[in-house]
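hey so u asked for the seq, here:
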Amino acid sequence: MFAVIGGLQDQLSVANDKLADLDGEVRTTTATSSKNEWMAEIRKEHADVDAIQGSDPFTGWLEEQPDYIRQAVYESGTVRDMVTIIQNYKDDVGLEAPSAEETAKANAETKRQSKLEQARQVTTPSLRKPARQHRPEDGKAATMTQSEIKAFNADIQNRTPDEIAAFEARVDKAIAAGKVSPN
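ran it, structure tokens below
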């Protein structure tokens, strides 16, 4: 009886690890997407923001500013705050606004990045359990190892949604049959 309970605990642990891995990937993708959208809004008014942010002159200028400005940049600034701060920096150091051509290039790049991000969202695995897939040629569940599952999850970003769904179905079948081994 204890062996059965131990086996079920191992299987539950594998399933929880799998869910935690997928949840972490979704959270990372969401945070990246939000930052990309935030930067795209700033680029609409300051196409040269990428060249400015992180530069030594900007960093030096920022260190001379009051705490609330540094806090806005490093922690809690809104898009409007950042647009204003960048404009203040440009005014203080005498930088001119980018040309219409530079602005058009930056806007085109922003659109391209947005489309790439949308494509990534489509291929990001969801936490939804896929529909069970029946393999008529094999009515028995294959034995799977935890290391096999972890290796697949480590490489999940290189997998297609169909590959992910098929693998998850195999894992579910192995768990249901009690055929997940620790190694």
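The helical segments are 2-45, 49-52, 56-63, 67-76, 79-93, 100-123, 146-154, 161-176. Residues 133-138 have pLDDT under 50 and may be disordered.
lmk if thats what u needed
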